[in-house]
Design brief:
Elements: H1 7-13, H2 15-27, H3 39-44, E1 51-57, H4 62-66, E2 73-76, E3 79-87, E4 95-104, E5 110-111, H5 117-133, E6 137-144, H6 150-172, E7 176-185, E8 188-191, E9 197-203, E10 209-212, E11 217-219, H7 222-234, E12 238-239, E13 247-248, E14 251-260, E15 265-274, H8 289-317, H9 331-335, E16 350-357, H10 364-377, E17 387-394, E18 402-404, H11 415-424, H12 443-448, H13 451-458, H14 461-492
Parallel strand pairs: 1-5, 1-16, 6-15, 6-16
Antiparallel strand pairs: 2-3, 3-4, 4-17, 7-8, 7-11, 7-14, 8-9, 9-10, 12-13, 14-15, 17-18
Main location: cytoplasm
Family: Belongs to the TRAFAC class myosin-kinesin ATPase superfamily. Kinesin family.
GO molecular function: ATP binding; microtubule binding; microtubule motor activity
Length: about 500
Amino acid sequence: MGQNIDKRSYRREHSELYMKLIQYYRDGMDDDAQSPTSSSEQRQSQSDDVVKVFIRKRPTFEREIKAGEYDVVTCKKHEIIVHDCRMHPSMKPNLAYVESYKFPYPNTEVFNEKSTTDQVYASALKPLIDYVASGNVGTMFCFGQTGSGKTFTITGLVKLLSKDLFTQLGNQGKFTVTATCIELIGETAYDLLSDHAEVALREGKNGEVVICGNKLCALNNGSELNELYNYAAKLRETHATKVNSNSSRSHYICRVFIDDPATGKQFARLTLCDLAGSERNADSNEHDIERLKETAQINSSLMALKEVIRCVALNKENEGSKVHIPFRTSKLTRVLKDCFEIDEKKKRPHTVVVATVSPLACDTEHTINTLKHTCLMMSSDSNMAGEKMVVQDILGADPYQKKTNILKPIAKMTYEETLEWIGSIQKGKFKKHLTKFPTSMDGKALSRFPDKRLQQILGSESLGLDLRKEIMNYTDKINQQKKQQTEENRNLSK
């Protein structure tokens, strides 16, 4: 009987073939596809989306290469591809294949491992700081798995934005600037500037969330803001994980308030949020009960934030049909509620998400998960999921022997995947009806809905029948593909 082997060990054992496959893909790319974009191109490429998502890939370190790891992430200017190196479904030791997931970011940027923090700032943060300095509300989130370079990236960005913000404010006149720094551990908020004193969240007269008991520090220049941010960051809750020996286990929120003494009112507000590193259960299976509970709370709050951002984006796209925004799902989304609501000036806050990813084969699942979450945060329907391209290959043979597009059965689709599929069929005929479907519906529930239920949801008998026909046609395609795949696998195993 053969020895069992996990997929990470399998990836390392057959690294030469997998690297050959990935290089074959890269050789077919345009010459400038992986080159960093210039600042002017970056600034001009942005749209008016409420939520802008930028991706940064960190370099592969020498110690990781010596340990047998290799780079499975390919970057283009507005696209990122993750090459998932897998064992063949037949589980035979001499077979393997690669699934490449393509995630497009047409309105923002993807930064490869050669990009600098200055380039990331010029594209991602400079427009946001300009917006805040003009008297508006802006928020930056840094999101990514533990060990993906998230804290390194946000530290460099804060240094640049601190100087830029105060320079612009100084050119406009005299403002009073204060800041507060809190961290969220589970469902409890603590003031980092008051010896980790617990602070309470209260709801104001107009439904806004007010942090009670937190300390405000006056700031006179950009250096003081940068120093305050770094000082508070060092006081965060950290613990060793399987991925990182000094992983941040809390959400760190720094809020900068800019007031106009002449009017006595708030002129602008900037929120900087370094989210706790997310982990898969497989990477936390050596933790004690407390750490496991902590990891579950972190992942739950990140999912809640993703859902809030997605709903905000949907509301902007569908002005006539408002989607409920679940701010109360977690303490994190409650604290950040005013970062997404239209302010007194009737202007919508701007939000930037900077997501960091690891290039390593052992982190493939993390990277794909991070990118799927960021795609759901964006407002463009075309970005709701990555395009999967399956590449099969017998070990030792020529790379990219065969390409097949694998369809996912409707019954296995999540709520988000189900909506994405419905919105894509018949040239987007059902897009404007997506908000009518219940949030408890996944693909399995959709496939079981009777015709009358579909007609009731869509408000039209003809639309209900059209959707039923599409479900049946898609199911037929799945069955045909399964039959074809079975035949191909049988031929490969001979």
